[in-house]
Structures are given as structure tokens and as C-alpha cells.
Amino acid sequence: MADGSDLMDKLVSLCKRRGYVFQSSEIYGGAGSVWDYGPLGVELKNNIKAAWWRALVHEREDIEGIDAAILMHARVWEASGHVAGFVDPLVECRVCHRRFRADAPEVAKQVCPVCGSKDSFTEPRLFNLMFKTFMGPVEDEASVVYLRPETAQGIYVNFQNVLSSSRQRIPFGIAQIGKAFRNEITPGNFIFRTREFEQMEMQFFVEPGTDEQWLEHWKAERMQWVQSLGIQPARLRFHEHESGELAHYAKRAFDIQYEFPFGWQEFEGIHNRTDFDLKRHQDYSGKKLEYVDPVNRDKRYIPYIIETSAGVDRTLLVVLADAYREEVIEGEPRVVLALHPRLAPIKAAVFPLVNKDGMPEVAGRVHQLLRHAAVPSFYDDSGSIGRRYRRQDEAGTPFALTIDGQTLQDETVTVRERDSLRQERVGIGRVVDYVRGRIG
Ligand code: ATP
């Protein structure tokens, strides 16, 4: 059984081999800590986002979705505290001029990890993690804009717009999925920490005084959602931020951590952000962001916010790491991605047992039946049946449908289930419902 960095190496190479994740700009030697999703990766990512959107927006009446732009007014980031406070202290090696986080272990040892120089580090200086660019043709201070480092601010500045255009009353939430950018100094661990990533964030607006209780509610909801993706509960835990760890806006905060091959790490945060953000935007914009109770109009307040903030890419890494298995079946090794069928990029693979006797034609028909029903299906007629199974096991495909001699007599196919390896015969007319019924 693989573990630690060995397991990460195996995952990275499986992701490339099967078309999940590729290094960005690979033919040019790669771009620093940026990754591209391939044909299977984009499907898995979309399935994770769809599961999140369904649970938070479609299945609930008290949450609205939005899609705010990445580029925002520069004042947003002054109000949010990111211009002044979204910084990491860095030291520079005076010999090779490379920069490192001041809290890196090599810095404590006073040895440059790149050129090996001793005692060559400068005093720490603060380095802002936001990517900065210019809006319009003139490159001056007045035209500075930032690539957003979190999606949340797009929700706060639209709080009144959503309130007045929907029929929501407090307590209610606004959800959004979108790209975020951070010029991380020490990115790494594959897609765990990257400079361009996606977030799924939900901001829940509540009456002050009810915030503690809503924090507990969202902690439970979010843990339950993660487990609904099939993640092993023993590899999940909460980590509460101690006072020194709390962000400037937070009253209380919890991470949901997963036991990655490189240790326990956060992939989602649940934060009580108090009324910090709306108050700051009210001060900086001069626009009232208070809530007026529709029943008792004398009751006005700036809502408290409970935030649930998950990284799409980190959740995807959780899903992949949790699904990866190495097994020996009847003396033969196999690698399998035991993905929840709802998340699997390909739901069914269709194989003609041999490329003759009319089997390819029937297999083609079954494949088209699935495709027309929008059930992602993959047709494979190359190599031995065993090899075809192995390829789909690695890709995480939950069902393999084989068209064999018996199919030609009774219109049934052999369905083999990826994890249990159980096989049963299903009539061609029932194949679509059979697969649909099991992918949830
Ligand atoms: P970390 O301490 O790991 O940098 P954070 O506490 O800064 O994370 P938040 O600002 O709370 O993270 O962001 C919420 C979520 O966004 C994280 O739980 C993570 O899933 C995701 N995320 C944040 N930064 C990155 C990154 N550089 N690459 C990938 N995902 C990220």
C-alpha cells in the first residue's frame, strides 16, 4: 500500500495518464503552481460544483446564487483589509536574491535552501499576496485593480442588490462559485496550494445574537455534505482556530481538515465573520448596508455573517486521495479510483467482448443509448477485456457493460460493478435506468 509522498507521486501521475490534471503550459516547462484540468478532471470538477450548488442553492429556499466579476473596484480591497493586511513576511537571500517565507524552517537555520549561503537573509519584509494589474490603457495608481483573492467580497457588495431583488428575509444566504488568485510564496503539493484556484463560498446573513447558533448549524451541514461525497469519516475532522490563528475579521473559526498523504490540512473553513465586512463596506462606500426588519421597522442592524468557504481544487484533491486504492484481485494488482458514482466523470464503459459477430454494433447501440440520455459513457474495443477493465478502474468509472455472445441471443449485457466486482445481467432496454438509478 502506497503512502506519503509516494502516494502523492502516484496520484499526480495517474492524473496525467488518465486526463485528470495537467501542468499548465507544460510544453514550455510549466507555469509556477498553476494546473489545467483535462477531459476527466473538468467533469469531476463540474460534478463537485454541481453537488455543492444543488445542496446549497437548489435544495434550500433560504440561499440565492450569484456570479460576481473577478475584477472589482480597488476600494473593495481597502475596505476588506486585503491591501493592508493580506501579507506574508518574506526574507531575501542577499546572494541569490530568492525570497522565502520568514517562518520557513530553512530560514530558522539561516541556510539558503537554493544557494546554500549561510547568514545571508535580509530582515523580513511584508509581501502582499494579491495579483495587481491595471484597468484600461493607463498604467498609474488610479487604474490599479486586483485579481480577487477570495470570492466573498463580491457577495458582500451585492448584499443589498440580492435582498431587494429576491424575496429573502434574514436569515438567508448568498452562494457563489468562482476563481480566486493568490500570489502564494510557498505553493505546492500538487493542486493543494496554487496561485489560481476556485472557491465555493456561501455567506449566511443572520441577526446578531443568533450567530453562534448558526455557526454550529453550518458546521454540521458542511461536514454532512463532505461525507455525502463518500469521503471516509475517519479521515475528516474539525480544527478550531485558536486566538492567535483567527483572521482579523473572525470571532470564531473552524476548518474542516482531511488527512492528506502529506498530513492533516484544511480544505474548507466555516467562519463567524461578525458584522466586520458589511460595516467596513458601509464606511468605505458611504452606502447604508443595514437590514430593516420587515415586521418591526424600528429594528435595524448590520447582519452578522457566517461564511462557509471551500476550495474546489482542494475538495477535488480530497476526493481523489480518498478514492485511490491499490489492490490485488486474484493475484493481479489493480489501481482503482473508488469515486462516488455521482462524482465519477464517466458513468459507464461499454465493451464488445470481441470485435466480430455483430458485438461492436450492439455495443455501439448501447453506448449511444446512454449518450442520448446524457449519461457519460465511454466505448472501448481495444485490448483484452481485463485491460479494458483496468483502464476504467483507474479512471474511476463505476460500471462496465460488456456485450458478449449471450447478448446476441437475449439482449442482455453483463454489468460489472467497479468496487465489489459483482456482475449481473441487465436487459439493454433497462441499461439507462439501471445506471441512472445508481449514480444518484
Ligand atoms: P491556507 O491557510 O491553506 O492558505 P486559508 O486559511 O488562507 O488557507 P481561506 O482564505 O479560508 O484559506 O480560503 C478558503 C478555502 O479556499 C481554503 O480552505 C482552501 O480550500 C481554498 N484555498 C485558499 N487558498 C488556496 C490556494 N492557494 N490554493 C488552493 N486552494 C486555496
Fold and architecture overview:
- The protein has helices at residues 4-17, 39-58, 74-79, 82-85, 105-109, 152-156, 159-165, 211-228, 276-285, 312-323, 359-372, 385-395, 405-410, 431-439; strands at 21-23, 35-37, 63-65, 87-92, 99-101, 125-128, 132-134, 144-146, 172-181, 196-206, 236-240, 252-260, 263-274, 291-292, 300-301, 304-311, 324-329, 332-337, 348-352, 377-379, 399-403, 412-417, 423-427.
- With 440 residues, it is of the alpha+beta class.
- It has two domains: 4-75 and 139-320, Bira Bifunctional Protein, Domain 2 (BirA Bifunctional Protein, domain 2, 2-Layer Sandwich); 346-439, Rossmann fold, CATH 3.40.50.
- A seven-stranded mixed sheet has the order 3-9-10-16-13-12-11. Strands 20-19-21-22-23 form a five-stranded mixed sheet, sandwiched between helices.
- Helix 2 (39-58) crosses helix 10 (312-323).
- The protein starts with a helix and ends with a helix.
